[in-house]
């Protein structure tokens, strides 16, 4: 049994003309971008096939749900094995088909329905369309051609999407504060941090952060990291082996050393936050203090830069780096910056190089400074590039202070 069996009824529920979608909605944005791309490429439809976890498919399903004013949570959480969706460029209507394992492939059903409407022609698809889905489209007389229009549409966020990201960021802040509370209560015993009689380890700290996220109504989604390596590997979950053969995740943390807490929780509606803080217990100042001043200053500069104009990812990364280096960090490998969009994925467009941070984008900005050896100071926040004439602003988050207790005093 598939949704395509009653396709006419599905179309009535799924939107039709973009003019019926709420102004500024995902449906309005996506359908407008798809219509432009189809006209430009002389294509008859846009098709995507994937599992419920595919962020591009979920974005299409958000657009499908909005005219009924349903929560996108109801779309994201449904356990459908595989789903195919199509946007008819002529009628600006959506088609959708799903199938259980024993049923016909949803792409075959959808291709047949589409062929009854437009006979043949070019259909635009994401580059990662499953191979079997492409074969079913070709079998029905269509010529698949790849497009990145879906990713481009997702780059700028609607007001509702920004609210969902802000909610996930609030949960991220709750998790980081829970971790900070554990560190604020820690004492030093034989050169290690101890709280409530037990050693404070990366694994214990990660659990505390995740508990705070869950209590705030979001999901850690496997994205919580304590002291990530330079490649952002989740050392607290897939621990590396420390000297002596001990598991790094269970090695007690030490005072006066920077402890990096990184998380990107997913809200119940599928949107992510993104937050990094570096904390030091019983720090004695020095290089990490200077690194901290440079990193925090870089965030002020980036906000001013994105308020003044739209900029590329490369330009903002360079601005962050220049601000940090102004505080005396001249070694080529001493500073790393990273900028990328946040939404249905922890990292999505605008993502690299010349991708422009356009109005409405939500981006994760990170500045990282090597303190000593393999120890880094990292800070990351989410910034919203406002509509024209609006100030670029950071989403609410805990203090950027190095002192754990400072995060608890707000």
TrEMBL record:
Residues 1-27, 227-250 are annotated as: Disordered. This is Peptidase M24 domain-containing protein. The lineage of its organism: Archaea, Methanobacteriati, Methanobacteriota, Stenosarchaea group, Halobacteria. InterPro entries: Creatinase/aminopeptidase-like, Pept_M24, Peptidase_M24B. Residues 232-383 form the Peptidase M24 domain. It comes from Haloterrigena salina JCM 13891. Residues 1-14 have a biased composition (Acidic residues). SUPFAM superfamilies: Creatinase/aminopeptidase. Pfam families: Peptidase_M24.
